[in-house]
Amino acid sequence: MLCAAIMTDHWEQVGWERAALAAFANTSNTALQWLLDEKVVKIEDTGSRKGGGTFLVPMNGGIWTMCVSLEEEEITILSRVGFPKQPLCTNYLANSDEEEPRADWQHRMQNLSISCALVCLIVLGSAALVGAFGICKHQISAVLITGVMYLLAGLFAMFTLMIIHFKRVQRVSARGGHVDDTGDGVVGPQAAALPLLSARQFSTSWSLELGWGGVALATTTSLLWILLSKIMRYNPISTMLL
Predict the structure, then answer these.
(1) Number of other CB atoms surrounding residue 186 within 10 Å
(2) Per-10-residue mean pLDDT, the chain, length 242
(3) Segments making up each domain of the chain, as ranges
(4) What parts of the sequence cross the membrane (predicted)?
(5) What is the CATH code of the structural domain delimited by 2-241?
């Protein structure tokens, strides 16, 4: 469950509050065009007749990716109205200057969650190998170490879950600014969408719930491995065999 949660990309979702967008459009000169049954919003530039523009799209992300939540057919339809051709997924592991700059707070939290997730995967793989060795060779110490390793995997997974949960927490600076100035949910020139970022909504998704279930399962598994080591140590049958 932990591996499945870490490898999926539905930890968080990015959406847009329609009422806030409509209210902003009514109080400014910005024209908004709703597309795909109000799933995507195009910011219209009234002073230009070009086909391009800025699009506000829903997105879903994992620990190291953030992708546009649109089907290929929907992308094709949007391309007719100027949807830019660019990669639909952002890989946080890639270190490329072409990628959008992320806020320093978001960048540090993202890197920390990736580190904890990678440690969790390494510990899970090592625990499986050590546990198999302990069972096959009847090594009590290896079985006990396996229990501790599963407990560590659950601990690092819990760190990852907590970081993802609090990654989008707003921090108010001395000037009252909004720290989360990343371009998640914006496709195209971001300058036109800056006033609309307050209408952006972040929510967690089913991968986070799957991860919490994995943490509970890893903790239970750890206790069972430790109990198995105690049974192997004090079992009279094992003593007679030894």
Answers:
(1) 24
(2) 91 88 78 86 65 81 89 88 84 58 70 92 95 92 95 95 77 43 77 77 89 95 94 69 50
(3) 2-241
(4) 112-135, 141-166, 210-228
(5) 1.20.140.150
